Amino acid sequence: MAPDRSPESAAERALNRLHHQDFVALRRAAAQLSVLSKDKKADVVFRTRLVSMHGTLNIYLSSAFNYTWRQASTLIAHSQGLGNHHARRIRDWLHTFLSTRKLPVHIISVNDGDSLLDDEDFALAIKLHLQTVCAKNKHFRAQDIVDFVASAGMQERLETAGIQKRSISVRTARRWLKRMDWRFGARKNGMYVDGHEREDVVAYRAAFVK
């Protein structure tokens, strides 16, 4: 994926003014995000944003990486299958959180005729859910996406967003998996396997779980 050569935003400039004397406060912020991102009562898409913020903070603070804010957020975005635009959003969310403690709430929004996957945060939430399932079981089924969409938290978010059709079939789940470039292994009894085990994903996970 091409490097982000866009000019610094106001949020990024503010982040870049932070230095080692701010690391204690940044570690406290990372700890707070870690707790909030694990709140099962919170909206899953909202939690996904917190995961991105937490992962970026962990990588930025890690002496093993010595990354800038842009490099850290880009690594997180790319490891989640997203691009530089999402990395910029992560930096914006972090700047807002660090300066005001406001968190990035989300309302699912899709146009008529579009797929739920066209909502970037919804698609990311599914990817992270599948990575969690795959890390635990080494594989997953299309049914896991059906169950994820049918979960109480996701159903509440879809209803709030005014989505009329709030359930999907296994066939739709398979189309989504193909669109997200997950591999299908027939030899695993119809189960999918993780097609995203790139080095940047491994690095992201290693930093995130600290």
Set down the secondary structure blueprint.
Elements: H1 10-16, H2 23-37, H3 44-61, H4 69-79, H5 84-100, H6 120-137, H7 142-150, H8 152-160, H9 170-179, E1 183-185, E2 191-193, H10 199-208
Antiparallel strand pairs: 1-2
Helix pairs in contact: 1-5, 2-3, 3-4, 3-5, 3-6, 3-10, 4-5, 4-10, 7-9
Strand content: under 5%
Strand runs, count = 2
In DSSP terms (H or I, runs of 4 or more residues), the helix count works out at 10
Global mean pLDDT = 83
Number of domains: 2
Largest sheet: 2 strands, antiparallel
Q: Ranges with pLDDT <50 over ≥5 residues?
A: 194-210
Q: Name the helicity range.
A: 55-70%
Radius of gyration: 17 Å
Distance between the termini: 26 Å
Decide which structural class fits the backbone: mainly alpha
Which descriptor suits the 3D outline? globular
Report the order of strands and helices: HHHHHHHHHEEH
Major beta sheet, strand line-up: 1-2
Written description of the protein model:
The protein is mostly helical. It is 59% helix and 3% strand. The chain has helices spanning 10-16, 23-37, 44-61, 69-79, 84-100, 120-137, 142-150, 152-160, 170-179, 199-208; strands spanning 183-185, 191-193. α1 (10-16) crosses α5 and α3 crosses α4 (69-79). This is RNF220 domain-containing protein. It comes from Mycena indigotica.
Would you kindly provide a brief summary of this structure?
This protein is mostly helical and 210 residues long.
Features:
mainly alpha; RNF220 domain-containing protein; 210 residues
